[in-house]
Amino acid sequence: MDFKQRLAVPSQMQIVEKIEGPYFEDMTIGQHLELSKPAITRLQIAKFAGASGDFNPSHVDEDIARDIGGMGGVFAHGMLGMGFIGQMLTDYLWDRPLRLFSTKATLIVRPGDVLTCKGTVTRKWVEDEENLVELTLEAINQKGEVTHTGKAEVVLPHRPIEIKSTQKRPYLVQHRVIG
After folding, report:
1. Which of the chain's termini has less CB crowding within 10 Å, N or C?
2. Around Cβ 100, how many Cβ atoms within 10 Å?
3. What pLDDT does residue 1 have?
4. Would the CA dihedral through 126, 128, 131, 134 be positive or negative?
5. Tens place of pLDDT for every residue, the chain, 179 residues?
6. Angle separating helix axes 42-52 and 78-93, nearest 10 degrees
7. What is the 3-state secondary structure (H, E, C) of the chain?
8. In this predicted structure, what is the pLDDT of residue 27?
9. CA separation (Å) from 103 to 83, 128, 154?
10. What b-and-e string marks burial along 124-161, b requiring 16 or more CB atoms within 10 Å of the CB?
């Protein structure tokens, strides 16, 4: 996959390879982030079970999930969707720290489901000399149903001040009081 295809940045933004995230001034209330993931596979669910250590049969054994568990078949871990939302955030924010990242699985995600993760800037403020940005988060399946909801708070620096070499520098005039 191409570097630019993997990133979850607003489509109108020009993508430049960099190692730092946005500045406080770059974020606007109402700004949207989005990341579309390919269809979830049974193999992906099994690999996530291995990575997380959660081998609940409802996630990996079709017969148990359908017949004994009464779940209608295997389904993805709720944390898989949270991971996708986290990818969307880190693709855009890069090295900027999260103060809060919280999600809740609201609907079962099954193999074949395609999730689109979305984030919207809902608030900007300064608290204790930290520039904070709040985002509401959600993941939506191919049917338009919300599968995950959440919230994130990001700490962002101000954009550095640049002094252009073409600007004239002020000079100091020394005043003496004779008295």
Report:
1. C
2. 13
3. 47
4. negative
5. 455 555 666 666 666 665 788 999 999 999 999 999 999 999 999 999 999 999 888 888 888 888 877 788 899 999 999 999 999 999 999 889 999 999 999 999 999 999 999 999 999 999 999 999 999 999 999 999 999 999 999 999 998 887 766 666 666 666 666 65
6. 90
7. CCHHHHCCCCCCCCCCCCCCCCCHHHCCCCCEEEEECCCCCHHHHHHHHHHHCCCCHHHHCHHHHHHHCCCCCCCCCHHHHHHHHHHHHHHHHCCCCEEEEEEEECCCCCCCCCCEEEEEEEEEEEECCEEEEEEEEEEECCCCCEEEEEEEEEEECCCCCCCCCCCCCCCCCCCCCCC
8. 95
9. 10, 26, 15
10. beeeeeebbbbbebbbbbeeeeebbbbebbbbbeeeee
The amino acid sitting at 91 is: D
Q: Which residue has the tokens 């079709």?
A: 62
Phi and psi angles of residue 52, each rounded to the nearest 5 degrees, phi first: -90, -20
Q: Strands of 18-129 (E only): list them.
A: 32-36, 98-105, 116-127
